[in-house]
Design goal:
Elements: E1 2-9, E2 12-19, E3 22-32, E4 37-45, H1 60-68, H2 77-84, H3 112-115, E5 121-123, E6 129-131, H4 149-155, E7 163-164, E8 171-172, E9 177-181, H5 190-194, E10 199-203, H6 207-212, E11 216-219, E12 222-225, H7 233-242, H8 254-267
Antiparallel strand pairs: 1-2, 2-3, 3-4, 5-6, 7-8, 9-10, 11-12
The structure holds zinc ion.
Length: 271
């Protein structure tokens, strides 16, 4: 998605948004009073002239979702706010000077200058470097979110309190658990994507990543080593600690078996 600032209209700003479904021009403003603080969209124009009658053209939220590719799971307000304040007049070019750090870190062959062009770095006298970045370091980016993801988290009860990780079996607090796809979401059909058995909780402490990369898989309900990949001793020790563990009951059964089986074969190059 691309956004382009077109101009100001009294206190409103006009932006062109180019998304997967074409372009839309929105005129919107930030209104702040003692009682409320919100973003108001005045008009939307997707090629048929500006309109403010959202219901005739589909609800405003749906309209924006369609053209921007954003899913607005929660609220469109933060997104509009961020877009509104992304344009603050002509941007001054500046370099952010970080504080110099005392003490050298041995980076081996990965020194900043070996991995980045000199124009991308600014060396400061105390030693160390800062990145040469023109403009603010916070940039408005919009990613396509998975519409079903928050629902999966709720179905798995991941917001309610600690749950067992389907791989290591440890009881883990919600912040460190994801609703992980057993079958890759990108390769799942629309029906499969809606199937609640396609996801199980996995933890951030290695399980999700190792499973995602196919280094481990589930066979007959137990964790096995799968894709042959060269790893460091440390990574190997994590894999070893998982091998032979049994997937806890609710996450292994007839409903999830087909997805685990797909996953195993996929990473062996058999599907
Ligand atoms: Zn785990």
């Amino acid at each position: 998605m691309e956004t382009r600032f077109i101009g100001d209209k009294k206190k409103a700003k006009i932006f062109d948004i180019k998304g997967p479904e074409g372009s839309v021009q929105i005129v919107f403003r930030h209104t702040k009073t003692e009682k409320s603080d919100k973003m108001i969209v005045d008009t939307v124009d997707y090629g048929q002239g500006p309109t403010d009658s959202w219901s005739e053209h589909g609800q405003l939220k749906e309209l924006l979702m369609k053209f921007t590719g954003e899913t607005f799971e929660d609220d469109r307000d933060p997104w509009l706010r961020s877009l509104f304040y992304s344009h603050q007049g002509p941007q001054a070019e500046f370099q952010h000077k970080g504080e110099s750090r005392n003490g050298q870190v041995n980076r081996g062959s990965d020194s900043p200058t070996s991995n980045l062009e000199s124009s991308e770095l600014d060396q400061h006298p105390g030693g160390g470097y800062t990145l040469t970045i023109n403009g603010p370091t916070d940039k408005l980016t919009v990613t396509k979110r998975r519409v079903e993801h928050p629902k999966f988290r709720r179905i798995l009860g991941l917001n309610n309190g600690p749950k067992q990780c389907a791989i290591c079996g440890n009881l883990i607090s919600p912040a460190f658990l994801v609703a992980a796809h057993i079958k890759k979401r990108a390769l799942a059909s629309d029906d499969e994507r809606k199937d609640t058995s396609i996801v199980v909780p996995m933890c951030h402490f290695g399980c999700d990543a190792l499973f995602e990369e196919g280094l481990i898989a589930v066979h007959n309900g137990s964790i096995i080593r799968n894709k042959a990949v060269t790893v460091t001793d440390y990574v190997n020790s994590i894999i070893q600690s998982l091998i032979g563990k049994e997937v806890p009951k609710p996450y292994w059964g007839p409903l999830t078996e087909k997805y685990f089986s797909w996953h195993l074969k996929y990473h062996r190059g058999e599907s």
